[in-house]
């Protein structure tokens, strides 16, 4: 069927990005109560900012459109996981604030929380994990460059 031994490793890596993303999303969607994997990611990303992020900051960090992030944020607000508050400095902007409920996200099965991440990566050595993080950061930077070229 496919000759992976002779296939360009970049193509294999590219396809595997999508395969891993799809599998990860399916596992997370089936393991979380009340929210989806994308909603969980949005809640988690809030902690990456020194102050509650704007919708624009959230969409830029996640790589999704402003409109898609707005839909995710609206659903999370409806469920009580976040609050949307006006920015004090810019009346056009809104800030995303986690609620206490967001800190209590439940999983359907014990052990499908943060320990899942550790179990996922325990097949890699510390060196492999560091190399993976470094390579992934470079790919994300390159994607930003390519997006800039595409937008110009």
Structure description:
Strands 1-2 form a two-stranded antiparallel ribbon. The protein has helices spanning 9-31, 37-46, 55-62, 66-79, 114-121, 126-151; strands at residues 82-86, 94-98. The longest helix has 26 residues, at 126-151. The chain is built from six helices and two strands, in the order ααααββαα. It is globular. It has a domain at 35-105: Orthogonal Bundle (Arc Repressor Mutant, subunit A).
What secondary-structure arrangement, pairings included, does this model have?
Elements: H1 9-31, H2 37-46, H3 55-62, H4 66-79, E1 82-86, E2 94-98, H5 114-121, H6 126-151
Antiparallel strand pairs: 1-2
Helix pairs in contact: 2-4, 3-4
CATH topology of the domain at 35-105: Arc Repressor Mutant, subunit A
Overall, the morphology is globular
> In what range is the share of β-strand residues?
5-15%
Contiguous low-pLDDT stretches (5 residues minimum) are none
Main β-sheet, in a few words?
A: 2 strands, antiparallel
Q: What is the N-to-C order of secondary-structure elements (H for helix, E for strand)?
A: HHHHEEHH
CATH architecture of the domain at 35-105: Orthogonal Bundle
Structure summarized in a few sentences:
By secondary structure, the protein is mainly α. The protein contains 6 helices and 2 strands.
């Amino acid at each position: 069927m496919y000759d992976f031994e002779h296939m360009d490793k970049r193509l294999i890596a590219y396809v595997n990005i999508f395969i891993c993303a799809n599998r990860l999303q399916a596992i997370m969607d089936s393991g979380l109560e009340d929210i989806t994997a994308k909603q969980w990611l949005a809640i988690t990303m809030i902690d990456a900012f020194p102050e509650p992020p704007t919708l624009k900051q959230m969409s830029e960090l996640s790589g999704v459109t402003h409109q898609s992030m707005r839909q995710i944020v609206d659903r999370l607000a409806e469920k009580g996981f976040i609050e949307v508050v006006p920015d004090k400095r810019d009346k056009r902007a809104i800030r995303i604030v986690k609620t206490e409920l967001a800190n209590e996200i439940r999983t359907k099965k014990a052990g499908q929380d943060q320990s899942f991440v550790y179990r996922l990566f325990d097949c890699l050595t510390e060196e492999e994990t560091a190399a993976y993080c470094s390579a992934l950061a470079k790919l994300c930077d390159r994607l930003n460059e390519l997006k800039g070229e595409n937008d110009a």
